[in-house]
Design goal:
Elements: H1 12-42, H2 48-85, H3 89-116, H4 118-124, H5 132-143, H6 146-160, H7 165-189, H8 193-217, H9 235-309, H10 313-347, H11 353-367, H12 370-385, H13 389-413, H14 422-451
C-alpha cells in the first residue's frame, strides 16, 4: 500500500480531508475500546452499575498511562515530517527508531509502578469500598498490556505524519473490531466479568501494535522503522515537541480523576457512586466527541510540519484555515447531536431510567461549549506542528487550569453535580484566548520561516 497523498503538492483541501477523515475515524474507533467495554459491563446482571462506576474510576488512569504514547509519538512524528520535507530522510528514520525505543523504555517504568500501586491509586481517585474490587480487577489486567498500548498508539503517529492515513486507520480498526468481538465472549460467555473486558482490550492492542510495526518496517514505507539507529541527542527534542500534546491528553485524564474524586467527596455515601456512574457515561460521550477532533488535528500535523520544513509557508496557512473550517463543522454537528441524542447514548450503558435521565442532562452541560473547544484543538496542535512549544504549552494549560479551578470551587458553594459545569467554562475561555493568541502570532512565524533556515 503506497503513500496515497503527496503532502507537498496535492490540493490542500484534498489533503486535509484525506488526512483528517481517516484519522478522525481511527480515533472514533479507538473510543470503542472504552465505550464497548463500559456498555457490556453496565448491562451485567445484579452489579452492572457498581462495576461501571469501578471501571469509570479506572479508565481516566488508563488514559493517563496511554498519554505517554502521545508524548513520544506526537513529539517525534512532527520532527520526522519536517526532516523528510527538508530532504533529511536518514535523520527522519533515526527519529522513528529513537521513538520506538523510548516507548519501550517508558512502558518498562509505568507497568510495574501502576500494577503494584493500583489499589492505593484507585482509592485516592474516587473508588469506594463497593467499587474498588471491580476497578482493581479491571485495572490490573489492563495495565499488563501497557507496552502494546503505547506502541500501537505512539507508532501510529509515524504512519499518519507520513501521509499513510489509510494504514493508520487499518491498524486501529483491526484492534477495535477484535475487541468488539471478544468482549461479549469473555464477559458473558466465559463469565469473566470486568476482567474479561480488560483482557479483550489487551489482546486487541497486541494486534494493533503488530500491524503498525509491520507497516513501518515495510519496504514500501517512505520513512521506515529500523532496529538500529537510536540516538540520545534526539530524546530532548522529542520530549520538547511532545510535551504540549502530552499535557492535553494526560491532564484531561487527571482532571477527570479529580472530577470523580470531587463527586465522591461532595456527593457523599448517598449519591457519590451514583454521580460517578453518571460521570462514567458522560466521560464516555466526551471522548466520543473529542477524540475524533484530536484525530483531525493530529492527522494534519504532519501536513503542516512537512510544508513548514519545506518552506512552503502559504500551504501551511491554508492547512490551518481549512482544518479549522472542517473541525468547526464537526463540532456544530456534535452540539446538535448532544441536544437530540444524549438520552439514546445513555441508554446504551444502563437500563435504569433515572440514571439515563441524570446522565443525559449532565452530558449536555458537559459538552455545551464544544464549538469553542474545536478552536482550542487547532490552536494547540498546529502550534506544536510548527515547533512553537512556547505558544502551544501555555494554550494547553489555560484550559486545564480553568477546568481545575471550576471543578474544585463550584461544589463548595453549589450541589456536587455543579462540577459538570467546569468543562463548558474551560472550553469557552480557552477557545477565545487561544484563537486571539494564535492569530496574532501565526503571520510572524510563517514570515520568519520563509526568510530563514529550518531550526529544530
Amino acid at each position: 500500500m503506497s503513500r496515497n497523498l503527496d503532502l507537498g503538492k496535492d490540493n490542500i483541501w484534498k489533503l486535509v480531508l484525506g488526512l483528517a477523515i481517516p484519522t478522525a475515524l481511527a480515533q472514533a474507533v479507538t473510543v470503542l475500546y472504552a465505550i464497548v467495554d463500559r456498555m457490556f459491563i453496565g448491562h451485567m446482571p445484579l452489579y452492572g452499575d457498581m462495576a461501571l462506576a469501578g471501571v469509570g474510576v479506572a479508565s481516566p488512569i488508563t488514559t493517563f498511562i496511554s498519554s505517554f504514547a502521545t508524548l513520544i509519538g506526537m513529539g517525534a512524528s512532527p520532527i520526522m515530517a519536517m526532516k523528510e520535507g527538508h530532504g533529511e530522510r536518514k535523520e527522519a528514520e533515526r527519529i522513528i527508531t529513537t521513538g520506538f525505543y523510548l516507548l519501550l523504555a517508558v512502558s518498562a517504568i509505568l507497568l510495574p509502578l501502576f500494577f503494584f500501586l493500583r489499589n492505593p491509586i484507585l482509592l485516592a481517585f474516587g473508588a469506594s469500598s463497593e467499587t474498588l474490587p471491580y476497578a482493581s480487577e479491571y485495572f490490573a489486567f489492563y495495565v499488563l498490556g501497557t507496552p502494546f498500548s503505547l506502541l500501537a498508539t505512539g507508532l501510529n503517529s509515524f504512519l499518519i505524519n507520513q501521509g499513510y492515513s489509510k494504514r493508520g486507520m487499518i491498524s486501529v480498526l483491526s484492534g477495535a473490531l477484535l475487541n468488539i468481538a471478544l468482549d461479549p465472549v469473555f464477559i458473558f460467555t466465559l463469565g469473566m466479568g470486568v476482567k474479561g473486558a480488560a483482557i479483550a482490550t489487551v489482546l486487541s492492542q497486541i494486534l494493533s501494535s503488530l500491524i503498525v510495526i509491520s507497516f513501518l518496517r515495510s519496504r514500501n514505507t517512505s520513512v521506515r522503522l529500523h532496529m538500529s539507529g537510536f540516538s540520545k541527542r534526539l530524546i530532548l527534542p522529542i520530549l520538547k515537541y511532545g510535551v504540549s500534546s502530552f499535557i492535553i491528553i494526560s491532564t484531561d485524564s487527571i482532571l477527570l480523576i479529580i472530577l470523580n474524586s470531587v463527586l465522591q467527596r461532595y456527593g457523599g455515601e448517598e449519591t457519590g457512586d451514583l454521580l460517578i456512574t453518571a460521570a462514567t457515561i458522560v466521560q464516555s460521550y466526551h471522548i466520543l466527541v473529542t477524540y475524533p477532533m484530536g484525530g483531525m488535528t493530529a492527522g494534519c500535523q504532519g501536513l503542516a510540519s512537512y510544508n513548514f520544513g519545506a518552506g512552503l509557508t502559504k500551504r501551511v496557512g491554508k492547512t490551518i484555515n481549512n482544518l479549522q473550517i472542517f473541525i468547526t463543522a464537526y463540532s456544530v454537528a456534535m452540539f446538535f447531536f448532544t441536544l437530540s441524542g444524549s438520552h439514546l447514548f445513555a441508554s446504551l450503558f444502563t437500563s435504569d431510567e433515572e440514571m439515563i435521565a441524570l446522565s443525559s442532562r449532565y452530558m449536555f452541560v458537559f459538552e455545551c461549549m464544544v464549538i469553542p473547544l474545536s478552536f482550542q484543538y487547532v490552536n494547540v496542535d498546529m502550534m506544536t506542528a510548527l515547533g512553537e512549544i512556547r505558544i502551544a504549552l501555555p494554550l494547553s494549560l489555560t484550559r486545564k487550569i480553568s477546568f481545575l479551578i471550576a471543578t474544585v470551587t463550584l461544589p463548595v458553594f453549589l450541589p456536587a453535580s455543579s462540577a459538570f459545569l467546569a468543562e463548558g467554562i474551560s472550553d469557552l475561555l480557552s477557545g477565545l484566548i487561544g484563537t486571539l493568541i494564535m492569530r496574532k502570532n501565526l503571520p510572524g512565524i510563517l514570515q520568519r520561516r520563509a526568510k530563514g533556515d529550518l531550526r529544530i
